[in-house]
Amino acid sequence: MSRTWDTARRNREARLQRAAPLARGKWVEAAEVPRLLEALVEPGDRLCLEGNNQKQADFLARALCRVDAARVRDLHLVMSVLALPEHLELFERGIARKVDFSFSGPQAVRLARLVSEGRIEIGAIHTYLELYGRYFVDLTPRVALLAAAAADEEGNLYTGPNTEESPAIAEATAFRDGLVIAQVDEQLQRLPRVDIPSGWVDFVVRAPTPAAVEPLFTRDPAQISDVQVLMAMMVVKGIYAEYGVDRLNHGIGFDSAAIELILPTYGERLGLRGKVCGHWALNPHPTLIPAIEAGFVRSVHAFGSELGMEGYVAARPDVFFTGRDGSLRSNRAFSQTAGHYACDLFIGSTLQMDLAGDSSTATRSRITGFGGAPNMGADARGRRHASPAWLRAGREARGDGPGAPRGRKLVVQLLETFREHMEPAFVERLDAHALAEAMGWALPPVMIYGDDVSHVVTEEGIANLLLCRGAEERAQAIRGVAGYTPVGRGRDRRAVENLRDRGIVRRPEDLGIEVREASRDLLAARSVKELVRWSGGLYRPPARFRSW
Amino acid sequence: MSAPPAPRRSYREAGARRRLLAVLDPGSFRELVGPAERVQSPHLAALDLPAAFDDGVAVGRGTLQGRPVLAASQEGAFLGGAVGEVHGAKLTGLLRLAAREQPAGVVLLLDSGGVRLQEANAGLLAVSEILRALLAARAAGVPVVGLIGGGWGCFGGMGIVGRCCDGLAMSEEGRLGLSGPEVIETTCGVEELDTRDRALVWRLYGGKHRIVLGEADLLVEDDLAAFRAAAASLLTRRRVLTLERLCQAQEALEGRLADFGSCADPVDLWAAAGVVAPAELPLLEPEPFLAAVARARRPVP
Amino acid sequence: MERLSYEVEVEGPAAPRAPPALVGVVASGNLEVLVEPGDAGRCRVEIATSARGFGEIWEAVVRDFAARHPVAGLRFSVNDAGATPAVVTLRLGQAVEEYLGATR
Predict the structure, then answer these.
(1) What is the pLDDT of residues A339-377, one digit of tens each?
(2) Domain ranges of chain C
(3) Is the complex ipTM higher than 0.85?
(4) Which residues in chain C touch residue B36, judged by CB atoms under 8 angstroms apart?
(5) Which CATH code for domain A25-213?
(6) Quick one: closest CA in A to C24, which residue?
(7) Span A221-529: which CATH code?
(8) Chain B closest CA to C3's CA: distance in Å?
(9) Interface test with A, best of C31, C61, C84, C87 (most A CBs within 10 A)
(10) Which residues are CB-contacts of A428 (< 8 A; sequence separation ≥ 6)?
(11) Cβ distance of B1 and A529 shorter than 8 Å
């Protein structure tokens, strides 16, 4: 019996034939897109709708919402970020049924409601790298809907600074006989550079409005508190300086923005320029501008771009990865890989931590997902190259025991002991467990696992979990920096003092840090306007961040 | 590597007392009705709301470049610097004291959203008393000058107080107006004013626009030393309070309405007033800005 | 509003007399602290707070604070608008610093 080996290819050809009358070559009119999708997409298809961390294929999302739900239905969406209301509308209309995703920030509450009503089936919630990995294994899209900045007549795509994950999606789809449709902001005779070649692209449509991009990484220095400055000082002196952390990734919270902003002041005073914070896997955070200008930062590879930073990035090609056209080339898949394997440290904020050091941003009524933090906030057990920071962390974790030397990634969690409205950040049991029970999931959505965490930093001090021997010691170390929360007040005072003697728990005074010095005056920039000044006028912040 | 920007001691960042201490001669400030006297708002207590020991304003005597002045500084972070009964009485008392003591001037560091809604009529009455006392002090020959550069700007009744001063100095970040942006959006709709567009809000209410319209006299950096210099400079330029002058001001305002009444955005107004490259104005530092608008300014007498 | 009052016996010399000092501001998540001379041998802290039901935490914060700073003979008055213990500790420390700074 002869078997056919090209069913997907034949099916693809059939779909292209159905769609051909609606297009002129690869180009489709915006008004025709719902009908094009009806011709191309089949019920039950696995479809990747580019819902990126920053840029969104918003026009194609709206067009997909307008298809005849009797013809296009029960889709299995695979997408990294559920960001737009339209993403969930697809489920309310029955066009989509199941989703595999990474992050759902703005739609977290609505998503939880739809899941509990049984209107969305979640395959799994992934990290970015995991989801991209599955695009190449068992979740390959049949159809991909992408967003790009521009296309030429042949359908080559230029993504501009926000390349993000478009190439990863296009590659997975195009080379398994899937269909790739791109919305672009404009058609150009000649592209500044080609980010995705036309051979991977089947249809292109000029969207009536530019693709939505959110400035997710802009943190207004005006909102950084004195307590966050104190924690930043502890991180710089107690971790960056001690380990000589030169390759790193930062989360997007105000606490890590505070670290970026005291490098040119406090870091400079400690003589750390040229010794720490040289190489970054990081979006172009505006709050990094002073550290770049002050000579701390030597290179930055970015997951995506940031609105307003285009001109600054283009003028600093020695620091950022840029194309021949001068604009930033970002790539989330590569930057996540860099964050996981090539960085010695990840530092990020979290909302809740338990006594095992597990932390989570999930609550009972919100399904937020993971994004990329767990890729970076996890020891890279496959890593095989050494660096001083990595080796020292490994020594601390393993002690003088037998076996070959091995390194460890530094994974630092920042949290104030109380959040707003006196919600304790340290808890006996994470809300993530209650969420998992309510949803019937096998895994609670833990963002960073405690056994990956090397340091916990609060306003009370630093707990070095690498040096802890055994679960009880870890728990006391965590209690020892948990302040006046019930968990903190439940500490064994003598045990904590003992940990302090051994340098496992360190207070600001143990680090030689004057608490009264912890004030916003230490920030190299205290407003967005001062960031603009540092950039020599090159940074052009979006209107919502301006007070001029 | 570009040179780091010159360090400034931000006026906007500083609290009410730090501003006052920096604007007056070092060590010269003597507070009246200070926090230890605990003259707090009775209304907030009745509403079970947190009160402040000084009800959100510090008043007292000091010197400015050696000359005796009376000064007040509103704390914007406490209830938006809003004027309640006690807060207002402290300002009124200071201005009445000025008419009696005849200092070289009164310096008001304004940072207020207007009347404190929680105190309703008491707050409204307080503002009218402040206005009466301010005009009486001016009539008695004591110049009253205002500084606007805090986070809450100067709105509502305090906006009127500000415009009744002999002179005003503002930073670009400072804002001056009668109805604030949220009030306009709420009453007239988001089409009229979209408060999420912060650049538009500052274009409309900020120091630069007020300079073009002639409502503020000096534009200064967001810097404590710059505000101190501005306060000293303002005290030397009196604005005589006469009926004739008021009539001229009325005429000027009618002319402004006729010329610019149809402008939808401050940028349109700047263009109509003859500014070259008006869209660039928000990005200019004070000095080049003043040069760019020199011919377009419309001083209100 | 909830009113709390704590008195801690403190060893050590009484703090020198100085004019009252005020730090912080009554704004959401923040507080103001007024420091004045008080009774010898003890430190008194009076709190008016908009966040009810945290007396136990306040007491722990106050006792730790009194143990770490030279506060004998001082009276602290606090107007609180829901500050976290981190902010409270920071402001109390700044208040002592400000008060003693005036005596140096």
Answers:
(1) 999 999 999 998 899 999 999 988 778 889 999 999 999
(2) 2-101
(3) yes
(4) 20, 34, 36
(5) 3.40.1080.10
(6) A226
(7) 3.40.1080.10
(8) 11
(9) C84
(10) A354, A355, A486, A487
(11) no
